[in-house]
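Figure-free illustration: sequence to structure, shown twice.
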Amino acid sequence: MKTHLHGLLLYCRPGFERECAQEIADRCGEAGHLVEVSAEPNSGWVEAQAEGGTLWALTRILRWQDLCFARQLLFSGRTVEGMAPGDRVTPLVEAARELCDGYADFLVETPDTDDAKSLSSMIKKLEPHLSQALEEAGAFSDAPDAPRLHILFTATDRATVALSWPGRRSEWLNGIPRLRMPREAPSRSTLKLAEAFHTLLSEDEQERLLKPGMSAVDLGAAPGGWTWQLVSRHISVTAVDNGRMNPELLESGLVVHKREDGFRFVPRKPVDWLVCDMVEQPRRVAALAARWLTQGLCRHAVFNLKLPMKRRYDELQLCTDLIAEAMGDRKYVLRCRQLYHDREEVTCYLGDPGKAGGGGRKRKR
C-alpha cells in the first residue's frame, strides 16, 4: 500500500499537550525510534516528525490503546493551507490521494477547543461534498485492512490529512466518546466509570469481567456515581464512605454502605472489583490499588490518580513505577488513560493479564 507519511498527529485534552508530547516521545524512544515533537499550548493536538522509514515502522508498533494522554493516534500527511472558501474540496481530495491509495471511510474533525468548535457548521456543509468527491476520485477501498482518512481542521482555510488503522485507534469522532448522562445516576462522576469500562477494557473483557452477580467495593463512594454504574450491571457493591449515599441506591438491595476510612477498609472476603475515586495523593492511591491486588482482596481495580498541576507526566511515571515495585514478580496489566470525563487526573485499570486478556502495558519485574 502506497503511503506518504509526514509525521504523527495526536489529539489530547487542551492544556495537556506537554504531557502528550512527553509520552509519545518516550514510547517512540522505547521502540528504538527518535521523533521530534512539537506542541502548541492549549491547542488540543500534538505533532511528531520523523523520517519516512521510521514512521512506517511506528505504524506497526504504536497503538492508541497503549497511550494515556492521547485521545487519538494518527499518521499525518500534508497540511493544506490557504484554502479558498469556495473550494475546499479539491485541495483536500488531492492531499488525501497523495497520502494513501484507498480508505475504508473518512472523518472530518476539529480539536476540542472553543475556537475550533466554531468550525462545526462549516464542516457539516462540507462533508457531503467531500464524500461525493472522494467517491468520484476512487478514494475508497473495500480491503479489510484499509485505513480511515481523518481531516483535521484547525482553521477555516487550514486542515491536515491523516490516517489511522483498525485496532490501533480510537473509534470515536475526535477521540471523544458520546455517553449520555443517566437520569437516575446520583452524580456525573458515573460517566467516568462508564467511559473507563469502554476504553480500558475490550468488548470481550467487558462481557467476561462485568457479569451480573459479581461483587465490588467502591472506596470514596458518596454520593454513589460509581456505585450506580456497577449496580446498573447488577453487581453487588460495598460502598465505603463517611458521606451520605443516594437513598435509591441503598434501596436497590445491591448496596451495603460502610461509614469507614477507605484506606483502612478490608473486605471480609475477596471481591471481583475495587473501584476508587478518592481525592488523595496519587501515589497513595496507586499503592492502595496494588496492595488490594497483591493481597488477593480483589481481582480487578479501576482507580483515579489526581495529578498535581506541575510535573503531571512525571507523577504518573512515579505511580506506575510504584505499582511495578509493589507487584514484584507477579505478572499484571496496567492501563492508564486520561478520559474525556476526567480533568486533572487519569484513570487506571490494574488486573491479572490472564483474566484481563491482551493489551495494555504488561510488566514483570
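We now fold a second protein in the same way, so the two outputs can be compared directly.
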Amino acid sequence: MTRRVALLGSINVGGNRVAMADLKAAFAADGFAGIATVAASGNVVFEAGEEPDAALASRIADLVKDNTGIDTFAAVRTREELARALSDSPFAAGGADNMVHVMFLEAQPDAAAFARLAADHAGRGPERLAPGDRALHMDYVDGVAGSKLTRDFIERRLGCRGTARNVRSIRRIMEAMER
C-alpha cells in the first residue's frame, strides 16, 4: 500500500461545504485505508494499492461527486512529490509561508501555456510565477484576497485544472503523511 494525498479542488470554498468526516466516510466506503484529513480544505491522506495516479484521481473525483454532489478533481501526490514541489519552488525559501503557493495541476501544460499565462498576467499584479512538474509555483507577495491571479484565470491559460496550497499547508500535509 502506498500513502498518498488527494488534494481536492473547490472544497469548502465558494459554497461547496463538505464535512471532513463525510469525506473520510466516503473514502472508507470506497475501500481506501489509513484515511486522515488535514485542515478543512479537501486534503485527504490515504493508502491505496499501486493504482496509477490518474486512475486514482478519476476514482476519487467520482466518489466525491457521488457523495457530495460537488464536481471536483483530485491532484493525487505522494509525500515525496509534495517535498519535491516545495524544493522546486523558487519562492519557498524567501517568501512568506502563507503567500507562497503551489498549484497542483491535473496534467503537465506545455511551455507555450506557461508562457501565455505569464504574458497575460504581466502588469496585472506583483505576483511571481514559475512552472513546475504538474505544478505552478506562485508568490502572492501582497496577499491572495485581492489578487487578480485567480484559479479561473490560471486554468483558462494553462488548459487544465489545479488546486493551490500554501507552503504552510503543504508542510502540514507532509507531516500527516508520516503517521
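Summary for the second example: The beta strands are 2-8, 33-37, 43-48, 74-78, 100-105, 128-132, 135-139, 162-166.
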